[in-house]
Amino acid sequence: MRHQNFLISFFLAILTLLLVVSCQRSPSDTETSSKVETPSNFQVAMLLSGSKEDESWSQAGYEGLRAIEKNYQAQIAYQEYVSNVDSEEVMRKYAREGYDFIIGHSGGYINSAEIVAQEFPRTKFALITTYPGNNHNLGAVGFRSGEVGYLTGLLAAMKTKSNKVAYVVGENYPVYQEEATLFKRGAEATNQSIEVFTKFLGTWTDEEKATKVALDLLAAGVDIFAFNADEAGVAAIKTVTKKEGIYVIGWTKDQYELAPDRILTSVLQDIPQLILNA
Predict the structure, then answer these.
(1) What is the CATH number for 137?
(2) What is each CA distance from 5 to 1, 10, 164, 264, in whole angstroms?
(3) Is there a domain that residue 84 lies in?
(4) 123 lies in which domain range?
(5) Closest CA to 82 of 120, 114, 113, 115
(6) 195 DSSP β-pair partners
(7) Band of pLDDT at residue 278, cut at 50, 70 and 90
(8) Predicted confidence band at 271 (pLDDT cuts at 50, 70, 90)?
């Protein structure tokens, strides 16, 4: 048991290190930014896929926007609950209104950003996801999600008693496909008898759907969950942790307070700092 506890502590430390390293700039980037004087009329807009108070991804994005406001004296605007379908028109609206920098805080906004960035070549766009950009006015920043997936899978496998664990994520984007694949790989590398369930909800905000999926997994015998599903995931966490012996790995922010003593750990992503790096 002492050996297992040591291993858990070790892997949590590595997980934290990976997340910190993945959102740091190169020295040259830092040097360049320190020489840029931001005008007081610098205007920044952000699209959020959920609520700015979702205790997860969208809230962290909003905190990043407020950090830009504070650090660069920027004028900010934002819109919550922007669907992938609506994101193109919302980006276009902000571009027409003269915003200098438009941030799409979702991997689902890639196609929209590509189209609108081409229409407004003098406006800067950024996506918070894994994406190469267009080498002109559209870029992106993201985390090393694969490594995170592997380590959370490993931790889930170390803590399960039923030999059944689950990774539940909002949307089926490439970055989360990679995360899910490596979650499974990490779990199976730790316990060859383990059964790994992966569920893509198709939503970040449908609490009822997320809760139903979680309860179905609970009925199938899952006792360790990793939820990367924003507002929908928060609702599911609160539901499954009511049952004795069920534990959860949270995502993006420290979600311990959602279910004290039932959150094994949370994948802490310093999204405000990541957004400042954008």
Answers:
(1) 3.40.50.2300
(2) 6, 9, 20, 12
(3) yes
(4) 38-142
(5) 113
(6) 164
(7) low
(8) confident
